[in-house]
Design brief:
This protein is mainly beta and 124 residues long. The chain is 3% helix and 54% strand. The chain contains one helix and ten strands; from the N terminus they run ββββββββββα. A hairpin with a 4-residue loop joins β8 and β9. It is elongated, with a radius of gyration of 24 Å. The relative contact order is 0.25.
């Protein structure tokens, strides 16, 4: 069972009890986060549910494990025969999330009131 969720404009495939690195979220470590922008979902039976654009009644609950910085990415620019060379480095901030569960919340069906509750007499 897995789902595809959108976090900060990026799509991530999530599975229960797995860790994912996402762009920095402003939540404290140890707090729970609910991800409700679910784009795709497969249930335990293997049935696929595709959203248009979102799947209704499905939420992903995650826990913030830690914040950190990724490995350095080197950005090197050069223009030939001009003597132009620039070297920059960048470390992106990230949040590590632990996926607790993928929960479906089904809408409750409205039940018809019983005859005794409405005051109507039974015909026998």
């Amino acid at each position: 069972m897995y789902a595809v969720v959108e976090i900060a404009g990026q799509q991530f495939r999530v599975e229960q009890d797995k860790n994912i690195k996402v762009p920095l979220l402003h939540e404290e470590p140890g707090k729970k986060v609910t991800l409700d922008r679910v784009l795709f979902y497969t249930d335990a039976k293997g049935k696929h549910h595709l959203g248009t654009p979102l799947v209704k009644n499905v939420k992903v609950e995650a826990k913030v494990v830690e914040h950190g910085r990724d490995k350095k990415v080197i950005v090197f620019k050069k223009k030939r025969r001009k003597g132009y060379r620039v070297k920059n480095g960048h470390r992106q901030h990230f949040t590590l999330l632990r996926i607790e569960k993928i929960a479906t919340t089904r809408a409750k069906k409205a039940t018809a009131p019983k005859a005794e509750e409405t005051g109507e007499a039974k015909e026998e």
